[in-house]
């Protein structure tokens, strides 16, 4: 199976070489890698170009957007820019962050999962962060969720869910739409990926309400948003974020913000979320 990788990148001079090095050392190499340099002001472009010169399957694309880091929209707009440069001669589409180190068998293992069952639509490993010299699981989500940092999609699934939505919540709605269209989502606990920059490290204050807006745009409704907000704030160890998330939800609701999903999909998502909540409670 052929896989293509797109890496949205902004000011990642510290990490991008480590990420690319771990990709070129894979036991099964990608057919194409596109690094989208989104307005970097450091040496990111220089470092990426050194890999482009060395490896024929790596290409670089430059894009300029606002310097402000808005979770979701900026990264997916950069992803789209990379996607536009690729043909459709792939079996698996991969979106990764520019601050990861993959084990050498990572993509070989991902491919094996896809080959094992034609209804598997998405596959991913787990992110580990360094704490006091140890690499520990970055425990922000349930173990059946694939982190936005390392998404791999079967081509048919990627096309059916309509690609990636340029908004915060893109990395949740993709999985919920997978379930809606009856695809399986697989996480592999044996695949430990080093995440060099913990999630949310570069979010600014303007972004703090975005999580609540994202919950609204997924069609969660108030009660599911309350449960999800509380859970996420506690996992991040910042209980006060709960209030920001709830404010963001009401802000989006009063502005009648457009949902990322259809009414039918929103209903399915709410039912699916309630089912998962009940499973945990009983």
Notes on the protein architecture:
The chain is an alpha/beta fold. It contains ten helices and nine strands. The chain has helices spanning 16-24, 44-54, 73-84, 106-116, 155-160, 170-180, 210-217, 221-235, 241-254, 263-281; strands at residues 3-9, 32-38, 58-63, 92-96, 100-101, 120-131, 134-137, 150-154, 184-195. β2, α2 and β3 form a beta-alpha-beta unit. The protein is globular. The mean pLDDT is 91.
Topology readout:
Blueprint: E1 3-9, H1 16-24, E2 32-38, H2 44-54, E3 58-63, H3 73-84, E4 92-96, E5 100-101, H4 106-116, E6 120-131, E7 134-137, E8 150-154, H5 155-160, H6 170-180, E9 184-195, H7 210-217, H8 221-235, H9 241-254, H10 263-281
Parallel strand pairs: 1-2, 1-4, 2-3, 6-9
Antiparallel strand pairs: 4-8, 5-9, 6-7, 6-8
Helix pairs in contact: 7-8, 7-9, 8-9
């Amino acid at each position: 199976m052929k896989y293509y990788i797109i890496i949205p990148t902004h000011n990642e001079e510290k990490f991008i070489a480590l990420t690319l090095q771990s990709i070129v050392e894979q036991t099964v190499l990608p057919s194409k890698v596109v690094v989208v340099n989104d307005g970097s002001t450091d040496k990111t472009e220089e470092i990426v170009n050194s890999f482009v010169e060395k490896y024929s399957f790596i290409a670089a694309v430059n894009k300029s957007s606002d310097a402000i880091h808005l979770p979701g929209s900026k990264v997916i707009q950069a992803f789209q820019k990379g996607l536009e440069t690729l043909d459709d001669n792939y079996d698996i589409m991969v979106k990764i962050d520019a601050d990861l180190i993959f084990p050498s068998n990572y993509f070989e293992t991902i491919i094996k999962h896809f080959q094992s069952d034609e209804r598997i639509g998405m596959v991913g490993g787990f992110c580990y962060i360094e704490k006091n010299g140890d690499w520990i699981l970055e425990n922000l989500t349930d173990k059946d969720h694939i982190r936005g940092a390392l998404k791999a999609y079967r081509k048919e699934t990627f096309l059916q869910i309509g690609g990636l939505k340029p908004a915060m919540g893109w990395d949740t709605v993709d999985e919920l739409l997978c379930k809606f269209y009856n695809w399986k989502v697989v996480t592999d606990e044996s695949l430990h990926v080093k995440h060099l920059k913990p999630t949310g490290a570069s979010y600014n204050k303007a972004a703090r309400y975005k999580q609540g807006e994202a919950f609204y745009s997924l069609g969660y409704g108030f009660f599911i948003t309350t449960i999800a907000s509380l859970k996420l704030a506690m996992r991040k160890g910042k209980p006060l974020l709960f209030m920001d998330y709830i404010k963001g939800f009401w802000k989006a609701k009063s502005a009648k913000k457009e949902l990322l999903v259809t009414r039918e999909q929103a209903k399915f998502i709410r039912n699916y979320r309630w089912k998962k909540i009940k499973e945990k409670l009983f």
